[in-house]
Each structure stands twice: as C-alpha cells, then as structure tokens.
Amino acid sequence: MDVMKAMEARRSVRSYLPDKVEQKKLDAVLEAVRLTPSRHNDQNIRVIVVRDSDLKKRIRQQAEMQPMVEEADVLLVFCATDRTDFVMPCGQYGYVVDMSLATGFALLEAAEQGLDTCIICAFREEAVKELLDIPEKARVVSMVALGYGSDDSPRKVKKPLEEIVSYERF
Predict the structure, then answer these.
(1) Which site among 8, 28, 83, 105 is 20 to 30 Å from 37 CA-CA?
(2) Do 47 and 74 touch, CB atoms closer than 8 A?
(3) What angle do CA 119, 95, 68 make, to 5 degrees?
(4) What's the start-to-end Cα distance of the chain, in Å?
(5) Beta strand pairing call for 74-80 and 116-120
(6) How far is it, in rounded angstroms, from Cα 78 to Cα 120?
(7) CB neighbours of 158 closer than 8 A, spacing ≥ 6?
(8) Does residue 94 contact residue 86 with C-beta atoms inside 8 Å?
(9) Which band of pLDDT confidence, cut at 50, 70 and 90, is reported for residue 20?
(10) Contact residues for 132 (Cβ-Cβ < 8 A; gap 6+)
C-alpha cells in the first residue's frame, strides 16, 4: 500500500475484537514512530506499549471511560520526554508538533499493516502519568488504541480540497 492508500484506509475505530496484534505488525508501527522527523532531530519521544488488561482498564477510567482504551489489544501512549518548555519562534510548543508527527506516522503504518486505530486525547494526564510511572517533566500528548476493529464503520467524509487549501493568501 502506498502512503495515499494508507491515508484513505485509515479511520477512527471505537470498537475492537479481542484478536491479538501480531508482534511483527506492532514492531512495524513502532519502527514508523522511530523514523518520525522531529525538530533538531531531538527524538524527544517515548512510546509506552500497554497490553495489560488491568492497566488498560485503569487508564480507561482516566480517559472519559472510552471503551476502545480497554478493548483494543494495544494502547500506545505517546510521551515527550524532555524539553517540554521549548517554544518555537512561531509560538508553538515544539513537543506538540513532534508528538503529532509521531502519532500520525503510527496511524499510517497501522493502516498499512491492516490494523485499526483511534486517537485518544481526552484523558487526565497526571493520572495516566502516575499509572505508567512517567516522570514529572515528561508530557503525555496522545494515546492510540490499536487492534482489529469489530465494526465496519466507514471513514468519515472529508471536506473537498478547495475548502481547505488556498494559495498565497488565507
């Protein structure tokens, strides 16, 4: 599958089968994260792979009780490890950009591997950090449910290109 096909195939899945993600496929997703570009090549990232059912259940309690946190075989937790106070000249925190790229690369490789995903950003960061022994200076930016979806919900309709692209001016 080429990149465009992976983007077209990716959808947010909120219900998962109990099927296990093969290690080879998980390794491919993690390798995509490793290859993610980052500002100044800081590689300011740690991905925590959570498969333990009890731990996923406790994380779900800190994530608005979203069922996919617990149902998916794998929960990937994306953390910025340091330099979380660095603000780029444009005014954005650098780690947010880096983690967004890492999350996106994981989503695309998961689609390439025939896996389903859902990005989880509604969670209580401090509680998740405590559950996963994440250092105080690190930031949890996103989580991704990863597995085999149990529904066949279609990809959401996207706006046409002319509604989101302009040239030279807004």
Answers:
(1) 8
(2) no
(3) 15
(4) 33
(5) unpaired
(6) 10
(7) none
(8) yes
(9) very high
(10) 48, 50, 55, 59, 77
Bridge partners (DSSP) of residue 108 are none
What's the pTM? 0.92
Q: Where do we find the tokens 């998961």? A: 110
Query: Three-state SS string across the chain, please?
Result: CCHHHHHHHCCECCCECCCCCCHHHHHHHHHHHHCCCCHHHCCCCEEEEECCHHHHHHHHHCCCCCHHHHHCCEEEEEEECCCCCCECCCCCEHHHHHHHHHHHHHHHHHHHCCCEEEEECCCCHHHHHHHCCCCCCCEEEEEEEEECECCCCCCCCCCCHHHHCCCCCC
| Model pLDDT for residues 49-87, shown as the tens digit of each residue | 999 999 999 999 999 999 999 999 999 999 999 778 889
Q: Which residue, chain included where needed, has tokens 């800081």? A: 42
Residues found in the chain: 170
Provide the phi-psi class of 41: left if phi over 0, else alpha when psi is between -120 and 50, else beta: left
What's the maximum distance between 2 C-alpha atoms anywhere in the chain?
52
